[in-house]
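FAQ: What does a multi-protein file look like?

Like this. Sequence, then tokens, then the next protein.
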Amino acid sequence: MPDSKMFPPRREFLGGLAATAAAIGLGEFMAQAQAAEPATGSEFQSWLDGIPGKHRQVFDAPAPNSGFALIWSHVFLMTGAQAYGVPESNLGVVIVLRHSAIPLAFQDGVWDKYHLGEFFKIDDPATKAPAMRNPFAHIKPGDMPLPEAALEKLIARGVRVGACAMAIHYQSMRVAQIAGVPHEAVKKEWLAGLIPGIQVVPSGVLAVNGAQSKGCTYCFAG
């Protein structure tokens, strides 16, 4: 199991990320990711087909952005029901977590073991230090200005959350290389550590496109 001694300080880590990206090359990374991911077409289509409601919105989250994709999702559900005079079930919300927003998809154990707060520059609201838990799910008092925007609460309300497979592959590879541990082991733990109800999608950009093809209005949330 990786421990804190295996992970470099933030400045060294960021330098390592740039070096890693330059070393592997985008083309090689794309080939690795394509080879590593199983075919998910029918599952992805079923996920898109399950978007509920008449009034639909997709929030595109390429960065954590203090959890605003979650906050705006709650606001859409709350104000949409009032403004359109419909039950919440007539509103459809999709959140796409991609690129550096991918840690929002993971349970606390992944954050703690792999120091995701340090890697992605996300601080714990209580300690102001790099978060060792997910401060956007199963939240503590003071974590978010709107407690109803906690990720698992939104999922329970029917919000569909997609996590980019390409981002999981790439980000877990970068973490594994810097920590000096096998990439596939890290990736496997990340996938097993997803918050229940989150769907792995082939890519975040594809999920945004797919949601729009199902009538979702686009909103950038990063």
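And here is the next protein:
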Amino acid sequence: MKAWWAVVRRDLMIAGRRLSDAVAVVMFFVLAVVLFPLGVGPELEILQRIAPGIIWVAALLAAMLSLDQLFQSDADDGSLDLLVLAPIPLETIVLAKCCAHWMVTGLPLILAAPILGFLLNLPATGHFVMLITLIVATPTISLLGSVGAALTVGARRGGVLVALLILPLLTPILIMSASAVDLALAGLNYVPLVLLLLAFFLVSVVLCPLASAAALRLAVE
């Protein structure tokens, strides 16, 4: 646990020195949501109906902005070789870096979502379920994104490649999350979809660090 926390703290310190990257993620999220009412019109009923999809699409795209740098900066300065040769499992290091990425990107998105929900006339019930889905599913975005980031280490235009690799895998999360909020607004049972998101997260916790570590070992070799 000490080694795991040391990696998390290291990545958080690096993110603190590049605070503009984290601010850019949040600003993209806010601007993307705010622009939708300008495009579809100010009708409150329409905004309320499409609010879950708007917020989740914007959150998904915003969280992916920094995924390409999850391992690329370590590869550029040579620290990735040291991480691979470290006496702790590489899978543990990958999991720690995913946790740090979620703290820097996912957590601010969760905090900003309620404010944007009010702007889109989302009812209180929708806010509650929206927060639940974001809390459960945003870590999965970081975990799945780590696989794409590991596969594209050293590649040119890695951000585009990460998006192409990961977006198809994230589509079920988007559908289930937005559908859970819609069910809550309709007064129906949304718990099964939340449980599916939780199951998706648990599977990702087990499989994604293994896949990312294998890809990083290949990249170093």
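Q: Is there any per-entry metadata?
A: Some entries carry free-text notes. For the entry above: DSSP finds nine helices and no strands in the chain.
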